[in-house]
Amino acid sequence: MTDDNIKVGVSNKEGQLGFLFTKGGLREGAGRKSIGVTKKVSLTLTEEMWEQFDKHCEELELSKSEAIRTMMEQYFSSR
Predict the structure, then answer these.
(1) How far is residue 51 CA from its own chain's centroid?
(2) What is the DSSP string of 51-79?
(3) Tell me: the pLDDT tens digits for 40-74?
(4) CB-based contact 17:10 (threshold 8 Å)
(5) pTM of this prediction exceeds 0.70
């Protein structure tokens, strides 16, 4: 593939960059479906807690996002 086959374009939603190939392009509804709103947060934990959290995620093969979401869902559903 040569450089002539790839273009960088701005998506219709949220101004995100997308790569456009000469065949096809950004399609409405394509890709992974959203499960909610993404917000960035900063979390301060001790080094020991980060190590425990990383080990937990690795053992269960979860991303940090999935692990935190599961913990929050369990907490709020038990209230």
Answers:
(1) 21
(2) HHHHHHHHHHT--HHHHHHHHHHHHHHT-
(3) 999 999 999 999 999 999 999 999 999 999 999 99
(4) yes
(5) no
